[in-house]
Amino acid sequence: MGRKWNNIKEKKAQKDKNTSRIYAKFGKEIYVAAKSGEPDPESNQALKLVLERAKTYSVPNHIIDRAIDKAKGGGDENFDSLRYEGFGPSGSMVIVDALTNNVNRTASDVRAAFGKNGGNMGVSGSVAYMFDPTATFAFEGSDADSILEGLMEADIDVRDVIEDGGLTIVYAEPDQFATVQQALKGLGISTFEVAEFEMLPQTEVQLSPDDQETFEKLIDVLEDLEDVQHVFHNVEL
C-alpha cells in the first residue's frame, strides 16, 4: 500500500495548497463537461462528477459559475482530451493527462518537459498497462471495517478499504465513482479529503537520491504546464 498512500498524501498536499493553478485546471474541466451536455449537473453526469471532485479542493463558487456560464453562452473554445506516456529517470513511469485547445503546443511542451528533466516520451500504451484506473476516496472519522460492512450491506462492491495516515481510504472501479460516493454519504461521510479518479501503479519503485531529485523536478514541470490536468507515476516519494 506504500505507493497508494503516497498518492493520497500527494492529493492532500495539492488540496491544501488551494492554488490558482488547481482552480484553473478545474475551471477548464468544468467548462468542457458543461459544454459536452446540458450545463446542469442534475442532467449532466459528467458535470456532476467534476463538481463533486472540485468540492474536495474547495474550488470557489465564482470559478465554477464562470465556467458553467461560459458553456451556457456557447463558448467557442474546444478542447481535446489527450494522454501522454513516458519514462523518468531509471525507467520510472509517468502518465500525463491533458485538456488542450492546441495539440501541437501541448505535445511540444510535454516532450520538452521529459527531455529536459531526465526522461523521454513513450508510445501510447507503453506505460498505462502498468496502472489501474481507480476511483479513490479518503476521509476522516470512520474505521475501515464499519465502512466496508456498510458498503456491503448497501450491495456496493469496492476493491479495498484500508486505514492509513489517520484516514479511511476506499478504492473502487472508476465507473462506480458516483455510486460509491453516494453510498459513503449515506454512511454519514460528509467531507472527503480525496475524491478522485486515479491511475494507480501496480508496482512502485524507489530511486536513488539524485534520480529522485531529477524526477521530482520532472513532475513539478509537468504539473505546471497550462494544458496538463493530471500526472500519475509509480515512484515512491
Automatic annotation (TrEMBL):
SUPFAM superfamilies: YebC-like. GO terms for molecular function: DNA binding. It holds the Pfam family TACO1_YebC_N. Its main location: cytoplasm. Residues 3-74 form the TACO1/YebC-like N-terminal domain. The keyword Iron-sulfur does not apply. Residues 80-235 form the TACO1/YebC-like second and third domain. It is found in: Cytoplasm. Keywords: Cytoplasm, DNA-binding, Transcription, Transcription regulation. Belongs to the TACO1 family. YeeN subfamily. This is Probable transcriptional regulatory protein LN051_09640. It comes from Staphylococcus ratti. The lineage of its organism: Bacteria, Bacillati, Bacillota, Bacilli, Bacillales.
